Structures are given as structure tokens and as C-alpha cells.
Amino acid sequence: MTCDDLRLRLSAAAIYSDEHFAAFLLNSDPLSGKLTATEQREIITGALHCGVEVARELGGRFAAVSPTELACRLGVKIVAGDLRSARLVLSTYDPHTTTVTLNKALIEKVEQCQCSQTLLPRNFNLTEITVAHELFHHVESGNKEVFSRQFKVTLWRFGPIRFPSTVSAAGEIAATVCAKTLCGLCFNPVLLEAVALYMEDEPRMTGWFDRLDRAG
Ligand SMILES: [Zn+2]
Questions:
Q1: Between 205-214 and 192-200, two packed helices, what is the crossing angle to 10 degrees?
Q2: What single string gives the DSSP state of each residue in 77-103?
Q3: Residue 175 CA to ligand 1 centre (angstroms)
Q4: For 216, what's the count of Cα atoms within 13 Å in the CB-facing half-sphere?
Q5: How far is the CA of 159 from the centre of ligand 1 (A)?
Q6: Taking a C-beta distance cutoff of 8 angstroms, is the pair 51, 178 a contact?
Q7: 192 CA distance to ligand 1 middle (Å)
Q8: 160 CA distance to ligand 1 middle (Å)
Q9: What is the distance in A from the centroid of ligand 1 to the CA of 172?
Q10: Sign of the C-alpha dihedral, residues 210, 211, 212, 216?
Q11: How far is the CA of 133 from the centre of ligand 1 (A)?
């Protein structure tokens, strides 16, 4: 696929709603097959609302501050790290050390890809988008009341014994929308996964778009 082809696919996919991207993320969760249609709707609605609320709360407490500055004020460290074991991951958050690790090599590749210019504002900064995503995980790790930690499904039952589990996609949906809201983006940042795949593992990109088109 050429960069122009990818631009066309990104432009076409950019019209999908946040609910559609949320369904895509939920479909990728290992637990998705265990969820009823009602639970799926609850997760999508609850996680989208939760992500916007956390972004508004953070934005309200620290008005007009960039996500990296926000992280600094919240005591979250940001380091450049080696994520070669997860080379398609832009960043991670470790709640034990309150540290965001940025996959700088991949972030730079995605920023420099011509296709990103289709999606992102002229002066965009992908580091800010990834830090904003991880700030949701920081808030989530410190607050048991957030939706992504509250919502649980029963994995199995044995008589009166139930084994409940959170659904990790709920946190990812919320983090994605938190980043979109905090950074004032006009597109869903899940689309950046496609650019990362294009740069690192193009054969998997077509399947990625097919799954996105079928979601929702
Ligand atoms: Zn995440």
C-alpha cells in the first residue's frame, strides 16, 4: 500500500463515531466473547462517558496546560524507554513507579509519516497525545471508583462462588477518549494504530482496517 492509499483509508475511517472505535477496541479484548450485547453497550457508553469526565476534571484543575505539564504537576514521570518487546505500543504506564514510558522511536516514525499529516493538526505533537492517554491510566490506577475499575463481568460461577473480572478494553476506550478530549482532537486517536502498523508491520494493516470496518 502506498502512503496515498493509506491517506485515503484514514480519511474514510475518520468519519466513524467514537462508539464505533470503542466497539472495535472491545472486539479486540480477550473477554469480548463472554459479554452479552447489553454488557457490551454498557461498557461502551460507560467508558466513553468516563474518559470525557476524567479529561474535563484534569482540564478543569489545570486549565490551559499541556498533558506533559499536567503529568509533571501530578507527579507522573515521563521517560523514553525501550519497548522492543511491544514494538507497536506507543507508550505504557506503570502505576507502581507512576511512570509513563514513551516508545520514542515509534512515536517519531508515526509523526514523520506523511500519512499522519492527513489526520493531525499541523502543529500536532504525538507525545502529548500518548501522555494524555496514559494520564487516564494514572487516574484509573489511583481511583477504584472510575467506571473501568467498577464494571465487572462474571467469568465463571461455581454454586454461590462468582469470579468477577474487569474488562481491560473499558480502560482503553476511556483512555482514548480522554486523550481526544484533552488534546482537542477532531479524530479518534485509535487511527494512529494504523499508521504505526504501516510503519512497522504493513501486512497486518489490511486486516486491521477490515476489523475496524466490521466493528460497531
Ligand atoms: Zn492504554
A1: 160
A2: EEEE---GGGTT--EEEETTTTEEEE-
A3: 6
A4: 12
A5: 35
A6: yes
A7: 13
A8: 34
A9: 5
A10: positive
A11: 6
Beta-sheet strands, E only, within 20-81: 77-80
Interacting residues of 86 by C-beta distance below 8 A, sequence separation 6+ = 92, 103
Determine the distance separating the centroid of ligand 1 and the alpha carbon of 208, expressed in angstroms.
18
Q: How far is the CA of 161 from the centre of ligand 1 (A)?
A: 31
| pLDDT tens-place values along the chain, 216 residues long | 788 888 888 889 999 999 999 999 999 999 988 899 999 999 999 999 999 999 999 988 877 789 999 999 999 999 998 766 666 889 999 999 999 999 998 998 888 887 777 777 666 689 999 999 999 999 999 999 999 999 998 888 788 888 888 999 999 999 999 999 999 998 999 999 998 998 888 888 889 999 999 997
Domain residue ranges in the chain: 19-28+36-204
Q: Which helix (H) or strand (E) holds 165?
A: strand 161-166
Report the relative pairing of strands 99-102 and 91-94 from DSSP bridges.
Answer: antiparallel
